[in-house]
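Homework-ish question, so no full write-ups if that breaks the rules, but can someone show me the predicted structure for this set?
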Amino acid sequence: MYVIVAGGGKVGANVARSLLGMGHELTLVEQRRDRFERLEVEFGHVAMLGDATEITVLERAGIARPPDLVLAVTGDDEDNLVIAQIAREGYEVQKVIARVNDPRNQQHFDLLGIGPTVCATSGILGLVEHEVPEHGLVRLLELRREGLEVVEVLVGPDSPAAGKRVAGLALPDGSRLVSVMRHGVAEIAVGDTVIRPGDQVVAILKPGLEDALRRALVG
Amino acid sequence: MKAVVIGCGRVGSAVAKQLALDGWGVTAVDEQEEALSRLGSGWSGGFVVGHGMDTDVLERAGLAEADAAVVATDGDNSNIVIGQVAQKRYGVACVVVRVLDPLRAEFYARRGLRTICPTQTAISFLTDAVRACDVAAVAEKP
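A: Not a homework solution, just the prediction itself:
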């Protein structure tokens, strides 16, 4: 496939290297001359000097083909938003992935319908919660456009679910248990699976049901 | 009538002062506290320090209740995003956005954002000024 990578910092350069290694064709756009010169040594013609938020630069990078995928991964969220909007709305690029640098800007990406997005800070915070579960519920995967989430829940000692069969649980409509992990071993959750305190349960649910699911499993 | 002016540089501060003279209740927003001095010693409107991408800052400036928003920071892409946030999230009826790059200004204008492009204005004025010259008269001069 043909990919435009906007932003040649650590993220852009590493993703570009991997995609090239997988045999894909791409253009890597970087606006800072010093950075571009270093990229040119490694990537040759694949690297391009320019501001990817400028339409003429995107056109030189082949936005009108259009590419199969545009990665807006610069260090500026406003730039990533504009690149993603121009790609999607101006050139009908079907797949755009945007990097969110400041998690507080996630709401702007959502408002303008730009996604999927990747935010390292949110990802790291998610892992912190996974390793040190404080809130009892950790988001493992968000399929925003599809309207589904996969979460992990730590069953508390006073959980209303403790000692009950999965089939007998009062779970919110629009949620379902996928697996139960106990002593490091995960099993697929079936109707007869019994929930114990300390179990790590993976569930799939519609967004917005997190609190109801937490109440049902954590207590 | 209430207006929020985001970006209080040379352009933003002058717009804020003019709107205030016209009778608007104006709040200006800028990242730099020093920008307040551009509004003059008699400034009686609001002033909020912070970045226009920050919704807390926008809400403190009263954007949700504003009738108009002027977005004129020094970054085209910030202006484009903030303008869309004012329009789509806060439902501000009149949003005008400064965009220096003519192509981006036109792209977003076609998508319903009221963009003002000073570069395009300068291009048109300069070109018209040359067209208006009496070239023959100019050429006769020594």
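Now go work out the reasoning yourself. Hint: The two ends of chain B are 57 Å apart (CA to CA).
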